[in-house]
Amino acid sequence: MFHRLKNDFRLSIITLLGISGLVGITPFAVLRFMQGNLLAGVVDSAILGGIASSMAYAWLTGDTRRTGLAMAIISSYGAVVVGSIVGDPGLFWLYPCLVTTFFLVGPRIAVGINLSAILAMMVVGLAFSSQEQMWSFSTTAVVVSACAYVFAHRNHSQRRRLEQLATIDPLTGVKNRRSMDEELDVAAANAERSGLPYALVLLDIDHFKKINDEYGHGVGDDVLTELVALLESNTRRSDQLFRYGGEEFVLLLPGVDGVNLRAVMNNLQQVLRKYLKHPGGPVTASFGVALLGHGESVDSWLARADNALYTAKETGRDRIVYAEEVGQPMPEPVPRAAG
């Protein structure tokens, strides 16, 4: 449970705001019934039920977008109904709803929900004792929404930037190892479900340390960026490239095996031999390739490709070695227990 809350920002916000709403509204729902205001009590109870149901839906399905929208609508329009029933005391409930809407949905959708809720409160008019009160409330509500919009928009931009920094290699612009781990898990799950073949390629630039030592790290960085450019221009959109560390990269190739895989690899090797250069001459790379076995774990898959790469480096470099050809066949799936 705590792992999901830590790694799913939207779910954590929905859970926090949902619990806050349940704790804050429940005493008032009880008070309404005790005071004999059954209509207000029923409305409060309906809001509580909607919030609780939305939270449960988010936890069971993982669909936080629909849940956030549902909670935003329930809380905002619920506040409008409560304000229309109980008058002045109900007006205060709309303010926190105007702010939390921006945490539950995107800024533009939140603006639409907030403005329509404020307008609905004004059109109904039952919550106000005078025109002056209505316009004062509406003006302050719009100001609150505007401030919340600015904060939410800036927060959204910063979160996107942080996510990019956490998943993209700053030098080459390709995804980093953290992204690779997530994408390999997705690939393994998709292969198990659909039967689509996946090939994993580990490639390592030959004698890269020598390039750095003799020509400087600036030249080494240029070689890395040029390698990425060549690989991206000679692979499909569906293929994914990751920087594994240093001069090592991982290429994920969906939907290729057999003859097609060998054609792809031979082409990449020839492209690098022809176009990848540094001041001292051509630059080559070694490749370790492994096909994902049925039921195989990502760790095993990656390890077989890594061992194939090691073999390529140890037997002369500038080679393509397939895991299945060096005593590392795809493992047999582990049989599931009956029952």
UniProtKB/TrEMBL annotation:
It catalyses: 2 GTP = 3',3'-c-di-GMP + 2 diphosphate. InterPro entries: Diguanylate_Cyclase (IPR050469), GGDEF_dom (IPR000160), Nucleotide_cyclase (IPR029787), Rev_trsase/Diguanyl_cyclase (IPR043128). Its EC number is 2.7.7.65. Residues 196-325 form the GGDEF domain. It is an enzyme of class 2 (transferase). Its cofactor is Mg(2+). It comes from the Bacteria. The chain crosses the membrane at residues 12-31, 38-60, 72-95, 102-128, 134-152. GO terms for molecular function: diguanylate cyclase activity. Keywords: Membrane, Transmembrane, Transmembrane helix. PANTHER family: DIGUANYLATE CYCLASE DGCM-RELATED (PTHR45138:SF9), REGULATORY COMPONENTS OF SENSORY TRANSDUCTION SYSTEM (PTHR45138). This is diguanylate cyclase.
